[in-house]
Automatic annotation (TrEMBL):
Organism this protein belongs to: Araneus ventricosus (Orbweaver spider)
One Gene Ontology cellular component annotation held by this UniProt entry: chromosome
PANTHER family xrefs: CHROMO DOMAIN-CONTAINING PROTEIN, INTEGRASE CORE DOMAIN CONTAINING PROTEIN
CDD domains documented for this protein: CD_CSD (cd00024)
PROSITE patterns attached to this UniProt entry: CHROMO_2
Record domain Chromo: where: 101-131
Record protein name field: Chromo domain-containing protein
Lineage, top ranks: Eukaryota, Metazoa, Ecdysozoa, Arthropoda, Chelicerata
Length: 131
């Protein structure tokens, strides 16, 4: 059908011809569930080496599944702050959180009741996660 032949009487038919198949297409079953722990892929700059990590060190939790084509997810960090934007399944990697997080740097040290306590920065995490 030619664009010049579209009018108010046949506009629904034209819309169905253009977009009808997309409505019939169902989104795939999601690979991740709400509550799954994941890492997200890192964007590499030109100068970064290929042997460096392709995935973030920070671990996120799947917060919400948005049933689109393709399926996308909203994520949240350990402080339950929702991360801005949505992520495709291909940008996420499911992980098991062992509770081990490598320390980048010891910021402070103190003794309390005969025990040493450390304030540290964790590798790959923002400063708000220092503890």
């Amino acid at each position: 059908m030619e664009p010049s032949s579209v009018n108010i009487d046949n506009q629904s038919q034209v819309w169905q011809n253009l977009y009808g198949e997309l409505i019939k297409e169902k989104s795939e079953k999601p690979s991740f569930k709400v509550g799954d722990t994941v890492r997200i892929s890192k964007w590499k700059e030109r100068s970064e080496k290929g042997y460096e990590n392709n995935w973030s060190r920070e671990i996120f939790t799947a917060h919400k599944i948005l049933p689109r084509i393709p399926t996308v997810y909203r994520l949240q960090d350990f402080h339950n702050n929702v991360i801005q934007g949505t992520f495709y399944e291909k940008e996420m990697q499911k992980v098991v959180d062992s509770g081990y997080h490598p320390v980048e740097k010891v910021l402070k040290k103190r003794n309390r009741n005969g025990k040493s306590e450390y304030f540290v920065k964790f590798l790959g995490y923002p400063e708000e996660f220092n503890s």
